[in-house]
């Protein structure tokens, strides 16, 4: 029942948000729901419920390994949103709050979906529920970004539906019933028709890869992250992408069972490295720090894809990276949001000297930059180290070399831009902008807590999480 | 039964070409709407035992794809006061030629794919691929936002055709969910189209160029 409550509670809260009369008090629904959601996921994480094999929705090992990270990230964003929406009191927030809550409910459904059709419905619905969040700023640029997001994301998600049908047909052609639950598909295994499995794999990887933002399907990402508020960017980069990633993992397990695991692994490695390289190249060139975060997200999706391609140890490391990426990305987006608000611009030509204007946020931003580029002792360092070790253990020296080179370029690109914004003297224009912005606890504590959690995950990974990731890997790829 | 099925799928393939050749937005919307209605009838031909849910889904498909979504698009067209020319990026003749080639290619390609015997004689798979390509051509080859939405609808129609192969296996509740998502999707697109029109004073997506590297 608790697993269904994870979906139902946010939806009930979303309806409450729609009916709530006052703009000033409505945002408090967000942290309230977040606290309940975190409590439920933590309870389920520590005491996992038995999973009925044929259930369409269940808190199965993979959901257990990933969903709590989404929940924690949402709570931090929700706490930040209360202060943020007070700053943005000129904009009505009824739809914004309701859609944020709906996104949480749909993410919970997507992570727990054990049926390809249901997974697709949840992912598509998340895509649509995020639309009002993206154009919250109500500017022309925001609508342009939303249009690209809808068009590219819609086409991608349509292809993943086609891929789902192809996988169903693979089962039908192989003599199965065409049942689209992952359990039934995996059980049919080598009985699935191979040409259809491969077609389905390509379509599903392109489809869910678009949602993750893997290159070359990432084109919507810089626009959407650049124009959306920081909390929305944090949720898209840390939570919405993970639902697509778990979809890829679940499909990969089916493809593995069908005996095409080698092909699947190879495509994941290639597309992962390609995403990392593309992201690193753009990171070296961009002058806009919100678009920078989008390219950094493309890079980290590449890392996840690479990990997923490297067998059991790689998948374990990728699940670890889902956590470290979600928490660190959350911190970096929220602190960047503060800087954007106080600095009054988003490129290094408009913003400088933020260490003077917003000393605390600027410090958090720099530390986040170090964390996200995998400097020890933060979480991403340890998860990426695990991926590197998985690559060497797999005998993929060349892959490891490209991986390290891309990380180095990304570090150069990110540090160049971050220090250009933090150092120097404030621009004259910044002094005139948003005078209402103060570095209150409401906008400082959430990114700080996320950063602290990222550090904690790195230096002392809780054993319950390690055990959850191991269980997920074993459930996905049972040893022969 | 196969004869009637093939006739309807062929009709849908013909409507692709009509859509690709349409130079006015209302006729493009009409082509997509009629195609959606044709597809809505197909589950009734495919399902052997007639139970209530099939009728409900078929009726909902026809109502939504044939009336609700085109209605939303026509309303957007009316409120935005846009002129009704399609303004192709890819000319009509090349689009038609590509669409026709896609139809021929889809028939040849479907012949090469391993199909179950009961599907080998139908046009479902070639129809699905031809419609998919037609939708993609419209999506990429037209500059007006509404024409692109029609392309997206036709792309979805192609996927729907393919999904009919699984009609006996997939629970109809999944089909219903997909249909619901599509409706909400077009509704959301309609709102964004409206806002873009107000903000940029045009629905020509070539004008949306402020975001680039």
Characterization of this structure:
The complex is a heterodimer of chains A (480) and B (213). By secondary structure, chain A is an all-alpha fold. The mean pLDDT of chain A is 91. In chain A, helix 9 (194-212) runs antiparallel to helix 11 (230-257) and helix 13 packs antiparallel against helix 18 (397-422). Chain A is built from 21 helices and no strands. Chain B has 213 residues and is an all-alpha fold. Chain B has one domain (2-207). Helix content of chain B is 76%, strand content 0%. Chain B has 8 helices and no strands. The longest helix of chain B is centred in the first third of the chain and has 29 residues, at 52-80. The chains are: A mainly alpha (480), B mainly alpha (213). The interface between A and B is large, with 48 and 41 residues.
Write the layout of secondary structure elements.
The complex is a heterodimer of chains A (480) and B (213).
Chain A: H1 2-19, H2 29-46, H3 61-87, H4 94-112, H5 116-129, H6 131-134, H7 140-173, H8 182-188, H9 194-212, H10 220-227, H11 230-257, H12 261-285, H13 289-309, H14 311-343, H15 354-357, H16 359-372, H17 379-393, H18 397-422, H19 428-432, H20 441-459, H21 463-476
Chain B: H1 2-21, H2 25-46, H3 52-80, H4 92-112, H5 117-120, H6 124-141, H7 145-163, H8 172-200
Helix pairs in contact in B: 1-2, 1-4, 1-6, 2-3, 2-7, 3-8, 4-6, 6-7, 7-8
């Amino acid at each position: 029942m608790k697993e269904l409550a994870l979906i139902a509670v946010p939806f009930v809260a979303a309806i409450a948000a729609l009916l709530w009369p006052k703009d000033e008090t409505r945002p408090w629904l967000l942290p309230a729901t977040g606290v309940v959601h975190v409590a439920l996921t933590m309870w389920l994480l520590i005491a996992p419920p038995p999973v009925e094999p044929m259930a369409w929705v269940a808190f199965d090992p993979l959901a257990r390994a990933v969903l709590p990270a989404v929940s924690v990230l949402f709570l931090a964003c929700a706490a930040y949103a209360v202060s943020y929406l007070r700053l943005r009191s000129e904009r009505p927030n009824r739809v914004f709050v309701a859609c944020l809550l709906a996104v949480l409910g749909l993410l919970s459904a997507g992570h727990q979906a054990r049926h390809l059709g249901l997974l697709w419905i949840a992912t598509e619905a998340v895509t649509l529920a995020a639309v009002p969040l993206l154009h919250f700023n109500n500017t022309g640029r925001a609508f342009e970004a939303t249009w690209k997001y809808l068009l590219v994301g819609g086409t991608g998600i349509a292809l993943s539906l086609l891929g789902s049908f192809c996988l169903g047909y693979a089962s039908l052609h192989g003599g199965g019933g065409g049942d689209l639950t992952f359990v039934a598909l995996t059980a049919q295994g080598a009985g699935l028709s191979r040409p259809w499995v491969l077609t389905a794999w390509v379509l599903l990887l392109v489809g869910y890869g678009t949602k993750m933002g893997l290159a070359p399907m990432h084109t919507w990402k810089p626009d959407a992250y650049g124009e959306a508020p920081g909390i929305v960017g944090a949720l898209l980069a840390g939570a919405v992408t993970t639902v697509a990633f778990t979809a890829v993992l679940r499909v990969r397990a089916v493809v593995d069972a069908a005996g095409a695991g080698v092909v699947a692994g190879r495509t994941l490695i290639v597309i992962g490295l390609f995403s990392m390289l593309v992201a690193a190249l753009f990171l070296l060139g961009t002058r806009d720090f919100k678009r920078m975060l989008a390219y950094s997200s493309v890079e980290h999706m590449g890392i996840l894809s690479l990990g997923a391609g490297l067998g059991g140890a790689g998948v374990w490391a990728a699940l670890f990276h889902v956590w470290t990426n979600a928490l660190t990305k959350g911190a970096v987006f929220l602190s960047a949001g503060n800087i954007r608000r106080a600095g009054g611009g988003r490129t290094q030509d408009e913003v400088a000297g933020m260490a003077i204007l917003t000393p605390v946020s600027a410090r958090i931003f720099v530390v986040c930059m170090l964390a996200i580029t995998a400097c020890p002792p933060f979480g991403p360092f340890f998860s990426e180290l695990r991926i590197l070790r998985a690559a060497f253990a797999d005998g993929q020296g060349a892959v490891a070399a490209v991986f390290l080179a891309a990380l180095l370029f990304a570090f150069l690109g990110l540090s160049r831009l971050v220090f250009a914004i933090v150092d120097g003297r404030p621009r004259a224009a910044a002094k005139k902008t948003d005078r209402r912005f103060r570095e209150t606890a409401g906008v400082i504590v959430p990114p700080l807590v996320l950063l602290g959690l990222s550090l904690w995950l790195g230096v002392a990974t809780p054993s319950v999480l390690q055990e959850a990731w191991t269980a997920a890997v074993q459930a996905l790829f049972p040893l022969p | 039964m196969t004869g009637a099925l093939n006739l309807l799928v062929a009709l849908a393939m013909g409507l692709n070409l009509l859509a690709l050749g349409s130079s006015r937005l209302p006729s493009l919307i009409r082509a997509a709407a009629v195609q959606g209605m044709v597809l809505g009838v197909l589950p009734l031909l495919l399902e052997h035992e007639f139970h209530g849910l099939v009728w409900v889904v078929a009726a909902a498909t026809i109502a939504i794809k044939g009336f609700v979504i085109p209605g939303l698009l026509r309303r957007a067209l009316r409120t935005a006061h846009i002129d009704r020319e399609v303004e192709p990026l890819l000319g009509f003749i090349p689009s038609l030629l590509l669409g026709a080639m896609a139809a021929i290619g889809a028939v040849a390609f479907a012949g090469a794919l391993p199909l179950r015997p009961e599907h080998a004689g139908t046009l479902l798979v070639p129809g699905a691929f031809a419609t998919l390509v037609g939708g993609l051509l419209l999506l990429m080859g037209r500059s007006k936002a509404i024409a692109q939405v029609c392309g997206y609808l036709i792309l979805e129609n192609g996927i729907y055709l393919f999904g009919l192969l699984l009609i006996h296996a997939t629970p109809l509740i999944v089909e219903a969910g997909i249909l619901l998502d599509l409706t909400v999707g077009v509704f959301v697109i309609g709102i964004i189209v409206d806002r873009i029109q107000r903000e940029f004073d045009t629905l020509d997506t070539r004008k949306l160029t402020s975001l680039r590297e």
